[in-house]
Amino acid sequence: MILQTYNTKHINPWAGYLADEEIEPTATTPYVKFNRFANTLNIKGTSTRVEMDKFYASNVSKFMTNLRDKKYGMLNLNFKTFNTSTAKVLFDLFKFIREQKSAGAIVKIKWEIFATEMDMYDTAKDYAELFDLDIVIK
To answer: If you classify domain 20-137 with CATH, what class do you get?
Structure first.
């Protein structure tokens, strides 16, 4: 009798792509969650650390690449407060989104406002007007 053995060690080449990428919040950085398949980027909290561009670089870059390639995406924002470094990240991201929308991409943007941060409402409106984007502000 010949016994057949099977290699039970299976490595899923998609494992790194299946899970959401998450960054837990700190006192100066927000919660960030990026889903590759849905091309959804969620950012919530305080964004005041120095050099926030480096903090966001990986996830924003992946979101932008997917937006360019897949032609769809969803951006959910909910800032308590943010600094000028974050403002620059948003400026560049919204500029890219505007360009991609002009090229036919479908992008939904939702910006939730903390009840105690009504100045953020004006900021969201300013970005929407500056980049001619439909931003749902709640």
So the answer is: alpha beta
Indicate whether 15 pLDDT > 80: no
Q: pLDDT of 50-108, one tens digit each?
A: 999 999 999 999 999 999 999 999 999 999 999 999 999 999 999 999 999 999 999 99
Residue 110 near residue 136, CB atoms below 8 Å: yes
| CA–CA separation, 69 and 63 (whole Å) | 10
- Between the CA of residue 128 and those of 45, 97, 131, 134, 136, what are the distances in Å? 20, 11, 6, 6, 9
Rg (CA), the chain: 19
What is each CA distance from 4 to 7, 10, 11, in whole angstroms?
Answer: 10, 17, 21
Q: What residue spans define the domains of the chain?
A: 20-137
Mean pLDDT, all residues of the chain = 88
